What does this fold into?
Amino acid sequence: MLSTTPLGCAPIILTVGCAPSSLVSFSSLAEDEFGCKKAINSIFDRHNQHLQALLSNLSTEFPDANWIFFDAYSLFLDGYQNPWKYGNYLNICVLLRI
It folds into this structure.
């Protein structure tokens, strides 16, 4: 199973959040030091924790099945927080802030 990604860092959230129709819903949300919306990331982080718990339960219930969890959340979050590790020396989350 694939986890969700940290959508609070996604450029679409950071830019759409500045549109007049979204100003109230996104602009008031607290940001972390990378410019990501903490409340949005918290929702998806909790979802991924529940998904891992579900897989643990399924592994117990169906021991002959092979369950694989791919943690895309951590991979993408690391990319947003450390873009230089992946060849991008500019943090897109900070650049897109309006």
Q: What stands out?
A: The chain has a mean pLDDT of 81. The longest helix spans residues 38-61.
